[in-house]
Amino acid sequence: MTGEENNRKLYPMRFIPQEEKTEWGSVRYLLADLGYKDSVVENGWFVGNTLSELMGTYLERVVGDEAFEYYGLQFPVMLKEILLQGRTPLLLNVDDDTAAQRYDSFGKTAAWYVRKAGKGAKIWLGFKRDLTPEAFYRRCREGSVEEVLHAVEPCDGEIFLLRPGMVYAAEGEQEILEVAESSDLALCLHNWGMDFPEGEESMLEEAFDLIDFRKYSTPPAGTASQDGSAVPLVSVPEFTVSSLRLDDPLRVNNGQPGSFTVYHCLSGEVSVQVPAAAGVEQSAEPCFLKKGCTLLVPAEVETFYLVPVEYGTRLLDVIVDQRTARDLYLDR
Q1: What's the Cα-to-Cα distance from 140 to each of 67, 136, 151, rounded to whole Å?
Q2: Using CB atoms within 10 A of its CB, is residue 305 exposed (0-12), middle (13-18) or buried (19+)?
Q3: Mapping DSSP to helix (H, G, I), strand (E, B) and coil, where does residue 20 land?
Q4: Domain 231-319: which topology?
Q5: Which of 215, 78, 191 is nearest to 143 (CA)?
Q6: What predicted TM-score, i.e. pTM, was given to this entire model?
Q7: Closest to 307 in 3D by CA, of 231, 248, 229
Q8: What angle do CA 114, 119, 120 make, to 5 degrees?
Q9: Are residues 253 and 291 in contact, defined by beta-carbon separation less than 8 angstroms?
Q10: Any idea which architecture 3-210 has in CATH?
Q11: Of 285, 286, 296, whose CA–CA distance to 41 is shortest?
Q12: Each residue's pLDDT tens digit, 23-67
């Protein structure tokens, strides 16, 4: 970026999705700073710049002081869209400490928001009952592990927390929005008797000591907003996901100073407008967010308006609350 760009004010930014085909459907990375996947700005004077370039140039102005102190130069969260037409392998997320020690990576806590559940939609989350490691291993080898997995037939609008240590998978026709830590680390344990996708292999033995063999317990979930206030659906130390319905314009004053917000439009359309600041020559044009699109409002933007173009526009918003410890990757 040039010196002139360095002096410019940040503004709400959309990013270009990056699609990747899989054996069971496709994945569209909506907002990612993973190295091999680096989101590109779609609007405004930073068009063509990547998310990692913004982080490297603007630092805490993008994510806020507290998030930058904890995460350093890597953007803290990732959003991707899973368009499922088959069955994923049985997967396992890894906690931050283990991921750093074994894989030189961030760990992964994630949430799956089911945007649309179609024919044969099913999600497996943990186990029906407490299970011994020996029984799980034997069933994976025999091909009968599905019998002990906790199965859910999801509905549109449901959200599920995928915590480290919990085995999970999904099948059928589904559109899932995944919100996660800035990591794509998921270990493949079992592929239902089929060959693993190219470049992947079973990590069952390696991951054995990381699996939570206890019976699955359902965490409390929020309900959709009806009055223009953001209602938390999932709140964990890594991120908070909330729902928001817009019938009228909403003025947003950053309730947590020095933090960023990510919006994903579920339905309708919204115009995101930043009021002109005194003494600032540049002003960003209103940024329109349509269904399926994702927007980052940087920490530097302290006040903005959400103006629904369509009545009843529905958004998910993602924030990162203050973390209490420094991350191992601060100086990366």
Answers
A1: 40, 6, 16
A2: middle
A3: strand
A4: Jelly Rolls (2.60.120)
A5: 191
A6: 0.90
A7: 248
A8: 85
A9: no
A10: Sandwich (2.60)
A11: 296
A12: 899 999 999 999 999 999 999 999 999 999 999 999 999 999 989
